[in-house]
Write a structure and sequence with these properties.
Layout lengths: L1 H21 L5 E7 L3 H18 L2 H8 L17 H10 L11 E9 L7 E3 L5 E5 H4 L4 H15 L16 H18 L1
Parallel strand pairs: 1-2, 2-4
Antiparallel strand pairs: 3-4
Helix pairs in contact: 2-6, 2-7, 3-7, 6-7
The protein binds zinc ion.
């Protein structure tokens, strides 16, 4: 009797372990670079590496799923999607312009030089994002990871207020961009 109980205990343990293992998502990122000098390219590759580690982590999953605004599990400007659906959209890598669920972040990065206070911009009809070298050249790989992920979340169709407001930080691009930066900081120090 004792033996069979023990057997089932180990069987349960095995099943729950393999379940946990299976839930670790695979996520890839492919950034096409335009007008990015070699020294800055290294920074982009480091940022891509950080993004892949962050998105595949259990902590990222839990934080995205449990994000709250006004005491509820939700995001500002969520397009009617639940936190679970937003997390799934990220894992699917399903951009508005490249909707195939390829589990990959597909984005193009082009650098430009301007003395304005604009960090960067993009349009809905392109997968390219433009980033000002005035900021980009000073960024750490962790900050590049935040910036790229923020812009990429626009490519998934999420938007936010143009002007700063307290609630804007709870929009999908800002909230999850900041989260990527926070978690990437941990991986970068390791
Ligand atoms: Zn934005």
């Amino acid at each position: 009797m004792m033996r069979s109980h023990l057997f089932f205990f180990f069987l349960l343990l095995f099943v729950s372990c393999s379940k946990t293992h299976a839930s670790v998502p695979l996520f890839d990122a492919q950034i096409t670079m335009v007008n990015v000098p070699e020294d800055q390219q290294k920074k982009v590759f480091a940022a891509i590496d950080l993004i892949k580690k962050v998105v595949a982590s259990e902590e990222f999953k839990q934080r995205v799923l449990n994000h709250t605004y006004g005491g509820e599990k939700t995001y500002v400007d969520n397009k009617g999607y639940t936190n679970e659906q937003i997390y799934q959209l990220i894992l699917d890598g399903s951009e508005t312009l490249v909707p195939e669920k390829n589990g990959r972040m597909d984005v193009e990065l082009e650098l430009y030089k301007q003395s304005t206070n604009t960090i960067g911009y993009t349009y809905p009809n392109t997968n390219r994002i433009w980033v000002n070298t005035k900021y980009f050249n000073k960024y750490t790989p962790v900050q590049v990871a935040d910036n790229l992920f923020h812009e990429w979340l626009h490519k998934l169709g999420f938007d936010h207020a143009i002007k700063y407001s307290k609630s804007r930080n709870y929009s999908v691009p800002y909230a999850i961009g900041y989260l990527v930066e926070e978690l990437a900081t941990k991986y970068y120090q390791k």
